Amino acid sequence: MTVTPYDKREGFIWMNGELLPWCDARVHLLTHALHYGSAVFEGERVYDGEIFKLTEHSMRLHESAKGLDFEIPFSVAEIDKASREVVRANKLVDGYVRPIAWRGSEQMGVAAQATKINLAIAAWDWGSYFDPAARQKGLRLAIGHYLRPDPRTAPVKSKATGLYMICTIEKHRAERAGYNDALMLDWRGQIAEATGANIFFIKDGVLHTPLPDCFLDGITRRTVIGLAKQRGLKVIERAMMPEEMAEFSECFITGTAAEVTPVSEIGPYKFKVGDITRNLMSDYAALVHPVKAVAAAG
Ligand code: PMP
Q: Which residues are catalytic?
């Protein structure tokens, strides 16, 4: 399968206040963010032409930037408006939106006080994050080697590009060994999350999920906790050790791109794709796709 590279596509990208033809949205080689990781981003999904939880994402982008000691020169309302404009300009009904804010090329070196803060928003058609067959059967996760860092080591609450360095390494290691993704443990050896999604386990009808004290408290994670509670299910957020995985019957991951995806295997531990996971998958699909859900029901 040939995939058109992301710098050679058609459409429009919003950059610093203007809608530019896709191929004109460029940065220079000597951009601070490329050298020192001074960038934060978001990942959003468009369903039926609307960006799901748009304002929560725009607010998180602002907070992520503060975590990296910079301020985005556009308000949350301006980012919301620009994001909708990009979706419209690219005529997207279902797709993905990627805002990114970064330090520019006005200063090189670790100090970057004089750099301009840039903001761009791209959007494109993006299907399932995981192979649809693997999604049906449940994903196979390897256990990663790198540990999610201590909050004293890195700005763990920011969705910062640099924090994905260990995620890409672990995802590649897992893929090379025939897995779909990796489970990452944290600096204490506790269960943290997958490389781009939060994780939940089920035992005796109760959901257990790690406390997000050194990784993102995902917007999807919070949404799914709400959906589970609406079904009368108990959700326990707590520190979880890897050995405990032997006791759980079901497991799934949550994220904007991943949505709700079942997990069938993590290292030596096996799970079934059970009713609670399936119900939460369909609750989430109905919530994000109200038009289709209503059409299917009618
Ligand atoms: N953790 C990581 C590392 C992620 O990349 C993501 C996806 N943004 C998540 C968790 C889930 O966050 P959300 O549900 O807000 O997309």
A: 159
